[in-house]
Write a structure and sequence with these properties.
6 copies of one chain form a homohexamer. By secondary structure, chain A is mainly alpha-helical. Chain A has 2 domains: 179 residues, Up-down Bundle (Ferritin), CATH 1.20.1260.10; 42 residues, no CATH class. In chain A, 44% of the residues lie in helices and 4% in strands. Chain A has 8 helices and 3 strands, in the order βααααααααββ. The first copy, chain A, has a two-stranded parallel ribbon with strand order 2-3. In chain A, helix 1 runs antiparallel to helix 6, helix 3 packs antiparallel against helix 7 and helix 6 runs antiparallel to helix 7. Chain A is extended and about 65 Å long. At the A-B interface, helix 3, helix 6, helix 7 and strand 2 of A face helix 3, helix 6, helix 7 and strand 2 of B.
Chain lengths: 285, 285, 285, 285, 285, 285
């Protein structure tokens, strides 16, 4: 069950409001790299967690923190929209600066939200929950979480570079730090469970006779004019200790696919049917 | 540039067509764990790859392989739809088996595609490209790819368990194997680049003064009634060698947010405004 | 800032797990009538609230409660999926009951989530945040919230009627009660602000000279063969006390629209252009 | 059945075309606050209307009017796009005004529609029909409609403030007026059916033994550091006359959720299983 | 401007209601082959029509007809849902027929709409307006319309084959007929404008020096192991009379793409940068 | 099965990078008129092709080519983003040119992709696979393909007009040429199968007794105040040779729809029910 405190997790100051930066910040709220995504992803993973209870606890604890991140970023968006222009001059030449701001803002910050944050990304696209990855497999979920936090920290670093506002830089430096920790903690779970060798291949519970092992450690080169790129993945032991990497040229092992003719009454054209219904006679005129 | 061979990468046999399994298989084509996603993800990562060229080559080589996976899975869906019922009895009691199949199938396999594969998941939802994660950061991208392959292998393992069809089991065992390799190869890139310690935190190019380091290795416990779950992430050195893990109770460090009154002419109710426009006089009747 | 307690807001018991009911329950989590929607809607409204602070407090308090509703419903879904069939018989006739269940379930409950809740509706469609209505106008927002709770209570009532499971009925009776309260509280805000007469028309801050008042209280009958349906809206004083209702037949007051010819080089066909580029001469053969 | 007249419902004049305002106007066509939404919402509510026929008639009459609103707004968009720039200078400095317009326009107004209206919002996002709320419950539907018209009138008021064009102001003043009427008429249905006391809680047909009435009129305070915000909703009779409002601190009444171990062959990691399949022996090298 | 008559365009009778067929019929309302799509597509094409006015008139006339098709199909869905089961038995074995129907229905027909039509397809996916194709080019639009009607007639034919209900067959035979006419009328526009030779290539207004004509009539064979499939497109005059068809093997004409190193401060990993920021020293412990 | 060559199909040169044009070009990658769409559409049509094998071969050959178009356009986007501004000045007046570029760019080109192509359109909306039209009917599919290529060529022509960059003009002239060929080849299939008369109405396999032929060639005029627009579609023989075109005023042929009262326990309001549950007594106070 959730509770709320009236203060923000971190202080939000905006020295110079900037409606274009408000649009950019939306990516950190409603983008695939954003806070709604991680809050909901950890929440749903927690609800589906099976096995040792502490991972469930860890997930819900951090889900709760991410909700607080949405909250302070939402406040940051609203503060950046303070004083934004809300009307336009018909002749853009009159005030190109104002018109450039209006053209660059998310118009729905004016039209739909009344100058406050929305659950959308920097293109104004609402977040959709298909990005909540929660598989029931703790290995897959931890990788998904580390991925989300890596994307999130890349985004925060780019936002940090984009602004000169001291308050915003301070807030983003906190976000960068928390993304560091969250990357760490999800990968630490894998380390605690024996590290990558023990975890891989995910799921590590698949019986080996369900797997065509001859194909499990071969880098297939589909290039027609280049050798396979050599690296850790082309020779030497596999990361899971079960095999040796090798390289092979990609080659068809299957048949040429064919579905044959269309059955009658299938909605196809008669020309696709072996025994089509008799063609109607053209009407005499 | 791409080329095509007329044969499939792997042989597809369906001993007993099953239209419900056709619906399930769609998850491996058009689901977030599916082949369209990885094909396009590796393709767009390759197009945006900067730095050592061999990673680009690796990405495009495997993107190309994934296109071939779409192709053989698409054929598997069509073969599972052979002979599927395409009409219903008005009285479901007449033939409950046929009606249960019709109710369980994806109706668009009949209505929209003429008994062949579609770029949709097992709920019939079309794949959308927001799931193509390509950040321009090779660390984030490699984690995203390992995540995708982990989800894909979990899915393939579940599909394997779901069917008794020998041909389908054979095909899925190949898919399980290739997902093993692909998990390996993306994580091998990270190993080649120095391993997790060197790669973390992603992006590892963020200057430390952009990061509020005091918050970078602290597990925040937002629980009101449980201690922080202890583990690799609560004490000891961080995975990136830059710090020591610790635990702290989560506490607000910021202000109580307030946006004040709504400006006049902002589309708010007058009651939200400090100095609202004068209230109209109610019409006398 | 948010915090969490390890116990659910309400006890969840499932006497007889039913994977089909798990699918149905998803509507209450990820449907437009569901808990993710209201949690996020109240949260974003709170973040954008201007004017008296107590409405912000009220919004965030209830947003927090709705997060707890997601949590117990998520647990209810998982408990309903306990023991669900995860493999199929190729010949549906062999066990029509199992096959009907498999056909009726959300396949992603098996394939994607490992038998736990997902942020999707009963069709498996992920919730998308475009349904978070937060306008910055407290009147519009309160109506939107009452609407959401009305839809939610309709849904809960239908789910209640659909199941015979005592634990589920108990949980749903709690949800019905909370939806009652939430309907009440949002409409009570409007009452507190003077009631509908004072609140309407929303926004009540629009100056009357921005409104073509002659058209403000006229029911337009667009029917060609029926009189306007008579009722409270066709005569008598308007609900906002500003006018009198009347009825009028709908009639065009505007011009016939015309855009004229297409400009050259606009990508139109030449036939749409007044002075098309000279037609190429067909190639001699 | 529908019919059409060749003239618009209201005259559309654009004194000074403004392609940026064309983008803004799209919100009134294809936004959630827009005309496609209300046209389709009233249409589908009419098709599902049960009970007194006059509400069906009223719904379809106004649905028909809203189609005409799409039409005149579509014309307004096209007229605002007359003469819009369709090519760019490579060096933005050459003509910053033209480049700011091109950057601020919806690019698809040039690229996809040939300078005419599209069924998209001001971010260019196509309207999707998930926003058509039609529950089969007249109370819920009337609230949903009043909500839609409130959002619509807020939007129209903001668009009015945004432009200086006399023709556009005139058109928007008509839209503001019609939104006034439509707000009125939907709420008048509730008044005609006995007012809020009779209508609430929606659905008012739920037997009281389906509802855990002890929880129906209690404002739950989830805040850890603030008292419940006091108002009409914290004491006094409930709006439906069935109870008395009160306040209580939110508290968990349920269990700590637990799903136990993952079953074998469920696609989880072995570490999540009580009796995992025997771990494979690492390959000797 | 639109008007409405209280009667349906065509009579709707359902002899034996079938909730599964109701789900199927939704494809004809809210599917990409359905009536919402064509109604809106012709409507938006009409609003953007430039050039001869009669095409605009034709578009709006048929758009209006399609609205009436939505209406009678919506009624057909509701009638097929009459008497549908709305509760389930916990033990599916108790009544497999009822449970198969409940599993096969669109659950939202019960939960969300109260047994009436929704603007969704047969998977329950809401229609989205991205499928409204209106380019401003009459040739492209007419092809798009013929395509939509072809898909629509294929769908109607499949629905006809799926049901035994006489009323439904009668309704579908009318739909099949109207789709015939609509296919005809859009292609007749192309014929009236000179036929395919004059219309192609669309847009026919592109100056020939904007086109690399050497590549305009060559079938590129990308197959590695099959000859190009021979047909009307591999030799002989092109359909537009401007060239001769030929065949060529596909070959790269471009460079190997390369983006070089990532710039500093771009959010990439240091390993992707030519001159990365100096690596931090690992913390001493 | 697919293979890859390391060189692009066509050379990509960008003389003057332009991040706004990069945004525009995205329409040709991820728009409905773009290359992902046609690549996937031809691919899925090929996988579902029944009847003569050469059409399958043709489809897969061109699908493969379209993948190469994605590739060179993706490179063109990245090259246009070289040197794009990635930080903003708080005071827009300081450098209006830079700020207008930042406001006009797709912000995710900076924030999400690290200055490279994304699978999105010019509004930043990810492509979704619902636009892959593959019906199993070769006539419908060929029309759909010609439509896609017509939209694509319209788009390419508009992009050509929009830029002054010689490299981009050269690339687009190649795209215009290939779109010409692809329009030709899909329509050539119809010609090869007997031309439009033989192909229409699609599907041409529908028995005539499934069609209400009296309605098949009548243009219905739904206009209340204009005569039917006269043309090829109002008189003379139909394009399929089966009938004669005529004109008729649209008239209702059906009943006034009615669904009667709502059943008890259906979640409706009591006022919608013939015999509602007894109304609760208001609580005494």
């Amino acid at each position: 069950m959730f509770f709320h405190s009236s203060k923000l997790q971190y202080e939000v100051k905006v020295d110079t409001p900037n409606p274009l930066f408000a649009k950019m910040l939306q990516q950190a709220i409603g983008g695939v790299e954003g806070e709604i995504r991680v809050a909901m992803q950890y929440f749903f993973q927690a609800m589906g967690a099976r096995g040792p209870a502490k991972y469930r606890d860890m997930l819900i604890a951090t889900a709760t923190e991410e909700l607080s991140h949405i909250e302070f970023l939402g406040h940051a968006v609203a503060l950046n929209l303070e004083g934004a222009p809300t009307s336009m001059q018909d002749d853009a030449a009159k005030d190109p600066v104002v018109n450039a701001i209006l053209g660059g803002m998310n118009p729905r910050h004016i039209l739909s939200s009344g100058l406050s944050a929305m659950p959308v990304n920097s293109n104004g696209i609402p977040f959709d929950m298909s990005h909540v990855y929660a598989t029931g497999n703790i290995g897959a979920d931890m990788l998904a979480n580390a991925t989300a936090e890596a994307g999130g920290r890349v985004l925060a670093a780019r936002l940090y570079n984009m602004t000169d506002d001291p308050g915003m830089k301070d807030l983003l430096s906190f976000l960068i730090a928390r993304d560091t920790m969250h990357q760490q903690q999800w990968l630490a779970v894998i380390e605690e469970l024996g590290g990558l060798e023990a975890a891989l291949p995910i799921p590590n519970s698949v019986p080996e006779d369900h797997e065509a092992m001859a194909h499990s450690y071969v880098f297939l080169n589909t290039s027609l004019d280049k050798d396979a790129p050599e690296g850790r993945w082309t020779s030497g032991p596999s990361l899971d200790g079960r095999g040796e990497f090798s390289v092979a040229p990609a080659e068809p092992m299957g048949q040429a696919p064919s579905l044959g003719d269309a059955p009658p009454d299938s909605g196809a054209q008669t020309e696709q049917m072996a025994a089509p219904p008799k063609r109607r006679a053209p009407k005499k005129k």
